[in-house]
Amino acid sequence: MNPRRPLGLLTGLPRAVRTYPRRSPLTLGYVGLLLLGHAWVEYGLSDQRADDLRGYISTNLDNLHDHPVRAMIGSALLYDGTLTDIASTGFGGTLITLGLGIVVALAWAERRFGTPRAAAVFLAGHVGATLITALVILLALQQGWYPADVREASDYGISYGAQAALAFAILALPRWARLPWAAFVLAWPLAGDHEWPGPIPEFTTIGHLLAAALGFALAAVTARHRRRTATLATARGRG
Question: Which sequence ranges are marked TM in the entry (predicted)?
Answer without folding.
Answer: 25-41, 86-108, 120-141, 205-223
